Amino acid sequence: MKRIIIKLVIITDFIAIYIGDDVMLDIKDKNIWRELLTTDNPELLEELYSSARIVQKEHYGNKIFARGLIEFTNYCKNDCYYCGIRRSNRDACRYRLTKEQILSCCDSGYKLGFRTFVLQGGEDGYYTDERLTDIVYSIKSRYPDCAITLSVGEKNRESYQKYFDAGADRYLLRHETANTDHYRLLHPQEMSCENRKRCLWDLKEIGYQVGAGIMVGSPGQTIEHILEDLEFMKELQPDMVGIGPFLPHHATPFANESAGTLDMTIRLLAITRLLLPEVLLPATTALGTLDPTGREKGVLAGANVVMPNLSPESVRENYLLYDNKLCTGSEAAEGLRMLDEMMKRIGYEISLDRGDRAGREVREWH
Ligand code: SAM
What we know:
It contains 13 helices and 12 strands. With 366 residues, it is of the alpha/beta class.
């Protein structure tokens, strides 16, 4: 007999679902995730999104944190089958920014009010530990009131420690999928799900605010895989979770695969908000690329971060992870203004504060 879900209830820290006959199940229950990911009951879905908004507002009010994203290199030694900057894509127009260029991006971002800089790039051997720590240290010394987020892939623990000591506060490393067989479908032999997870645990132990996450609708992904991802995140307890749709790139082995859907992405954002109530959850550029109203819908499903681009305009169109990536041309200030208007239209406002995870102790850096 199919269960009938009557209501989502939130009692301080306890989030549950009432099913028929007054039975109540904890939101941490895998069967509820399955139900929420597959239901075609519009009332239940509306209930899911409004509950996610209640939890989001309880912790962050109507603030949406904006992070200044600097995509500083598109060289990559990896060959992930989904990614437009994979090393085998000979058509990619490669670039890397100098330390001075990165600092100048931070400088214009700081003047606009940004207090978090996210440095993202492919796994580029040019940025040795020495070069990267020097960049991090230079940014942190110049802007000690800002948080620095790194997203430069898999490294050994010693390297992560060096970046942390130099001043990096946060690290984004989507686990991509928690299932080893699915991981193998998405990545070549030399990469492993085990190592990706090891990196996340190392980062956490060092003291970073850690971000995991997945692409929704990546080739071969099933509902059971997504349930494993939720299990993994429940165990890891990340501070941030990056969830965006998979979008095909024409020069990859997945060129002809279908994109992930808006529907599944926002369901998963809302479930993540309920499962990890204080998490920092971006409404991603990929979501905005998939659907012109994608980011608004993401926020209305519990997301609370956006990441406007601070990279120099001349290189933006070369950081192409997937086709038709949004906003490759507009100025940082212009991008911020557009996001601000977009958020105001749905009753939220952009905050440029550091925006640490609610309730998290922030370390002193000297
Ligand atoms: N090298 C770093 C890493 O591996 O985490 C950061 C850069 S990597 C390009 C950032 C993220 O982009 C990946 O974690 C992946 O989830 C996402 N990405 C890559 N290709 C994508 C695609 N075709 N569609 C959607 N997201 C994609």
